[in-house]
Amino acid sequence: MNNNSTSLPFTKVNLTLTSEAVDFLSETTSGTSHFAILIQLIKNMSVTPSSTTKRGNVIMLDVGQVECSIHSCCAKFGIGRKKFEAIMRKMEQHSIIRMHRSRLATVADLACITSWLLPDGSTMTNGIDGNPAVHSNGQSDNHDATPMPAAMSMMVKRMPLLTATSTESMP
Fold this sequence. Notes:
Elements: E1 12-15, H1 19-25, E2 28-29, E3 32-33, H2 34-43, E4 50-54, E5 57-61, E6 65-67, H3 70-77, H4 81-93, E7 98-101, E8 106-109, E9 113-117, E10 123-125, E11 133-134, E12 140-141, H5 150-158, E13 162-165
Antiparallel strand pairs: 1-9, 1-13, 2-3, 4-5, 6-8, 7-8, 9-10, 11-12
């Protein structure tokens, strides 16, 4: 176990990625792994409706969303703004994330996440039930997090998904 790990609000995350997305995530930009950027977004993902404050304004985050300020991400990963924006655009093209930009904030839906296991043992889905959610920003999409029925949970366990757990070491 990684001694530097933080307490995450989930114990397991299930991802669905195309082979092209996996190829993209295996690349680096300016010495930073694209997969490491995705892992950071997952670690910061909201698993319950929440809010964050930016410049005194409250930004509502729905389940499966993350606030990903370009400036703070560039500073964290040591990548220039244009290169980081290009990485985010590519992640969006590969259906890894779905971006919502405004003058105030940049919010990403983690579209590649299908479900996650909470510490209490319950499984939450991230829109694979086909019911679009209307986010607090008024945009409709397919990210309605709901408890997964037991029959669906069994089906998901049989699906060949790339799975990352919170106990793995990060790249």
